[in-house]
Amino acid sequence: METNSLYPVATKEELQNLYVGRSLKDVATPAAVLDISKLKSNCNRMLEAVDSLNFGWRAHIKTHKTIELTRLQVGSGIGPVNIIVSTIIEAEHVLPLLLEYKNSGRAVNLLYSFPITPAAVPRLSLISKSLGPNGLSLMIDHPDQLQSVVTLYKECSTAPCIFLKIDMGDHRAGVVPRTAACSELIASLLALQTAGTAYFLGLYSHAGHSYASSSRSTALDYLRQEFESLLITATSVHSLIPSHPLILSVGATPTTTSVRNLLSPSESAPEEEKIAINTLNTAIQAIRDEKCSIEIHAGVYPTLDVQQLATHVLPQSLLSWDNLAFTIIAEVASLYPGRGKNGSPEALLGAGSLALGREPCKAYSGWGILTPWNRPGVSSQENGPEDIKGWVVGRVSQEHGILTWGGGSEKAEEVLEIGQKVRIWPNHACIAGAGYGWYLVVDGSKEGREDEIIDVWPRWRGW
What pLDDT, on the 0 to 100 scale, is given for residue 410? Predict the structure, then answer.
């Protein structure tokens, strides 16, 4: 049977011996870098927000695929450890950590967030056996998937928990509320629960289209739509079994991050933001009146990226370039004065689509933005990516990144040099990280030692 052993990962000890103590300026490129001070800040702020709002929390680990960052996402203490994975190999790699938490007395639940298929059953059965009762959750959005649930139960003799995936508008996966298909699935899940084959844990949504947000009010409204879509479905469940407890799990990083606006609403906020906060609070109270538990989830919020900045879901004082924890180091390979639009300069970067990803950002035309690092006299951007001025990765092919000069001036205010190393903020951290086997970890809060590699985190590969 295919397992994670077929995708070998360099050992942490080997990587530490190779990199720890070195400077980022001395490593081969391209390379992926994480700033642990920013990761800790982003993770702690999320944990504090959900705790203050009395929400449950479920951390998605698909962005980074590491043990170390998973620890930061779930935090310390004795509270539950609820995890989401997109691939079975993520589940297999994080399993030892979950067992560690379970043995320490923390309740553990792992959600495999892709609708279950027959081919997934053997590996998921082993995970369910290891975690025991209430340890594994599955996602369902079609009645034909239920046979795989039954097969898994027969293989491991442990009833999995089930989330019913609700499509609240982005049409990636899920069943539409208030449809015959949704009613059929609810009845079928309750029948499986009665038979002892599964436990109907809750309802799940993902507002992927919230990446189109461009203001706090927009993101808050997407979150309200998520809550209301699940609440409508919860009332359908309770019409059949009134006392059944349900977890309503909502979120994407834009909507989940936006909950921090509920903690300190501003009197000077635009009227549409005040309305969005009020209507969202009304939806939250309606869910609690229905006796449902609220859980929020997110994945890319620890690292953040240019796409997240472009959503403007928080004030700039709370979400800015300084919060982006993930960068790619690359080297300038050639220079092309006057080759660009209107005679502007271009340069060749040794990082193309495999190193940076090929995910667009709605705020600007490009595939990554140069940070101020190793660029004397250059300061960080003051505004969002819509107003970017300076070098961006304007075009990419497999291994080539073409730096173009943006900002309205035909003449670059900064001249790059061949051999100069630069760091790039990628558009989408989930995709950009996929090309790397490990992350070099630095601590940007260490004045004078910001470039010193203090750790290396192996990254899981495969499916």
Answer: 54
Comparing C-alpha atoms, which of 84, 160, 96 is closest to residue 125?
A: 160
DSSP state letters, 24-44: GGGS-SSEEEEEHHHHHHHHH
Concatenating the DSSP letter of every residue in 132-194 gives: -TT-EEEEE-SGGGHHHHHHHHHHHS-PPEEEEEB--SS-SS-B-TTSHHHHHHHHHHHHHHH
Q: Which two tokens stand for residue 267?
A: 């009197």
Q: Cβ–Cβ contacts within 10 Å for residue 60, how many?
A: 26
Interaxial angle between packed helices 88-103 and 67-74, expressed in degrees from 0 to 180 and rounded to the nearest 10: 60
Q: Taking the C-alpha atoms of 117, 120, 124 and 125 in order, what is their torsion angle to the nearest 10 degrees? A: 90
Backbone φ and ψ of 139, nearest 5°: -110, 135
**Region 147-175: what's the mean pLDDT?**
96
| Phi/psi of residue 247, nearest 5 degrees | -100, 130
CA quadruple 408, 410, 413, 415: dihedral, nearest 10: 130
Query: Do strands 368-370 and 136-140 pair parallel, antiparallel, or not at all (unpaired)?
Result: unpaired
Mean pLDDT of 420-435: 98
Which of 25, 15, 112, 29 minimizes the C-alpha distance to 435? 29
pLDDT at 376 over 70: yes
Print burial letters for 117-136: b (CB count within 10 Å at least 16), e (below 16).
Answer: eeebbebbbbbbebbeeebb
Going by C-beta distance under 8 Å and a sequence separation of 6 or more, which residues neighbour residue 119?
A: none
Whether the per-residue pLDDT at 1 is higher than 70: the answer is no
Contact 67, 93 (CB under 8 A): yes
pLDDT the model gives residue 10:
83
pLDDT tens per residue across span 379-410: 888 889 999 989 999 999 999 999 999 865 55
pLDDT at 93 over 90: yes
**Is the model's pLDDT at 2 over the cut of 70?**
no
CA 460 vs CA 12, 109, 177, 280, 341: distances in Å = 12, 20, 36, 37, 41
Indicate the residue type of 27. Answer: V
Average pLDDT, the chain: 95
Convert the pLDDT of each residue in 101-121 to its tens digit.
Answer: 999 999 999 999 999 999 999
Q: Please, are residues 146 and 122 in contact by the beta-carbon 8 Å criterion?
A: no
> Could you give the CA distance from residue 175 to residue 162 in angstroms, rounded to a whole number?
14
Instruction: Kindly state the helix (H) or strand (E) to which residue 253 belongs, with its residue range.
Output: helix 253-257
